[in-house]
Amino acid sequence: MSRFLKLVVVLIFALFSIIAILAYQIISFGFTEKPKKSDAIIVLGCAVYGDAPSPFFKERLEEALKLYKEGYGRYIIISGGKGPGESISEAEAGKRYFLEKGVASKNILLDNKSFSTYENLLFSKEIMEKNSLKTAIIVSNKFHLKRASVIAKRIGIDASFSGVFVKEYVGDEVYGFLREVLALLYTYLRGW
Question: Whole-prediction pTM value?
Answer without folding.
Answer: 0.92
